[in-house]
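Format notes (please read before filing issues)

Several people have asked whether sequences and C-alpha cells are stored in separate files. They are not. Every record keeps both together, in the order shown below: the sequence lines, then the C-alpha cell lines. Line labels are part of the format and must not be stripped during preprocessing.
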Amino acid sequence: MELNTEKQNLINALQIYVPYNEQEERDRDIMLQLLKTQENILERENQTAHFSASSWLLNKEHTKVLMIYHNIYHSWSWTGGHADGEANLLEVAKREAMEETGIKNIITVSDEIYSVEILTVDGHVKRGSYVPSHIHLNVTYLMEADEQEVLRVKPDENSGVKWFFLDEALKACTESWMIEHIYTKLNEKLTV
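Then the structure lines:
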C-alpha cells in the first residue's frame, strides 16, 4: 500500500510519540498497524474503525478546560471529530474545536501528539440515519484559548459549551470510562 506524505507524517508522529501508560502504548501499536494496512482508515466509510482527533482545550492559565455537552453521548465532553480523509489530525482537532465552541482564536500548545486512545462508539442515529457501533482511533492535542471569547453551541452536535475547572470537568462528565481512563489522564499529564 502506497502512503501519501500526510499519512506518512501521521505514522512518524505516532512512532516517535512516547506513551504515557500501558493503555496508550497498546492503543498506539494498534493505530500504527491499522494505518499501515487499511486503505480507508482515515474515512468514516470504514464502519469498523476510523481516525478521529480531539483537543484538550485549556484556558491560558491551564486551570480550566472548555467542554461541550455532546448530544449523542448525553455528557460533557472534549471537542473533536472525524478525520474524514485528512491525515493532519492537528488541523482536524483545531477545526473541530472552533466549530463546536465558536472560539475563533485557538493556540496549539504543541504540534506534538498529547494523547492517544482507542474509543468505542455505541450505535446511534445521526442526521436521521443509523450509525452502527464502531471504534474511534483518536489522537488528542493540547490547545489553549482565551476564556473571554464568546462561546456558541453547534446545535446539530452539542447543546452546551462551558469552561470547567479541571476537577469539575471530571464531575460534569457522565461517561465513567472517559473520566477514569481519559480525562483523568489528560489532567495528570499537565503536571508531568
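For reference, the curators noted about this record: The two ends are 38 Å apart (CA to CA). DSSP finds five helices and ten strands in the chain.
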